[in-house]
Amino acid sequence: MRPLPGTPRPGFPPAPDTPPLRLLIADDNPVVRAGLVALLSAGAGTTVVAEARDGREAYEGALRHRPDVILLDVRMPGVDGISALPHLVPLAPVMMLTYSHETQTVREALRLGAGGYLVHGEFTTEQLVRAVRDVREGRPHVTPGATRALLTALRSDATAHTNLNSVEKSAISEPQALSQLQPSVGHSFRSRFRLSEREAEIMDLIASGMTNQQIAAACFISEKTVKNHINRIFAKLHSTTRSQATAKWLGVA
C-alpha cells in the first residue's frame, strides 16, 4: 500500500546538517585575505568569521569570535605571526599560511604549537580545505616547501650530533679535557638513546606531529619502513606511545 501524502517514509533519518567550520584569517595583505575569504566561503563547509591584519588583531578576533581554526601569516607589521602564535594556540588550532619557508621559521612555528604549515603556491583549494579540517582534528599538514625546510634543520642537527660524538670520543682518549667538555655533553642528552641518524630524523618528525604517511613522504621511504623505524625507536626510548617517546626525546619526561 502506498503511504499517504505527507507520511514520513520508512528508512534512515536524514543526516544532520553539519555547521560550517568557523575560520579566522590573519594576513596583512588585503588581496590575500580577500582571496582566502572567497575560497573558504564558497560552499566548502567553511566560513570566515573574522579577519585580522596582524597578530594583535588576530588575538582580539579569536577572543571575540572563538573560531574553530586560525589561519596565520608569518610576516606582518606590528605583532608578527610567530610572536602571536603562543597566545593564539590556547584559543584555537593554528595553521600557518604564508609565503615564508625559511628553515628557522618553519621549525619555530611547529615548536610553538602550530598544527600545520602551508606555503602559498603549494596547495589547491581542495587541499587547503582538507588541511583546515585535519588541523581542527589534530592531524598536521605541512606542504613540500615547509617539509624541505624542516628536513634541512633536522640534517643540520644530525651533523652537529655527529660532530659532538667525535668530540666526546676525543674526550675519552684525553681524560684531562673531560671537565672542559662536560657542559656541552650535558646538552646532548639525546645521545644516550643511541638512535641512528635516520632514527633521530624520524623521531624529530614524530615530535613535530607528523603522521606515518607524512613521514614516509618527507623521507622518501615506505610507510612500512617508517613503522619498522618507529618500533626500533620506541624500544630504545623504552616507550609504547608517540606521546611518551616525544616527551623523552624533548627532555620533558
TrEMBL record:
Domain Response regulatory as annotated: residue spans: 22-135
Coiled-coil features, chain-numbered ranges: none
Database matches in Pfam families: GerE, Response_reg
Keyword Transcription carried by entry: yes
Keyword terms, alphabetized: DNA-binding, Phosphoprotein, Transcription, Transcription regulation
PROSITE patterns recorded: HTH_LUXR_1, HTH_LUXR_2, RESPONSE_REGULATORY
Post-translational modification 4-aspartylphosphate, affected residues: 73
Domain of life according to the entry: Bacteria
CDD domains: LuxR_C_like (cd06170), REC_NarL-like (cd17535)
Keyword Nucleotide-binding: no
Record SMART domains: HTH_LUXR, REC
Record domain HTH luxR-type: where: 188-253
InterPro entries membership: CheY-like_superfamily, NreC/VraR/RcsB-like_REC, Sig_transdc_resp-reg_C-effctor, Sig_transdc_resp-reg_receiver, Tscrpt_reg_LuxR_C, WalR-like
Record protein name field: Response regulator transcription factor
Gene source species: Streptomyces achromogenes
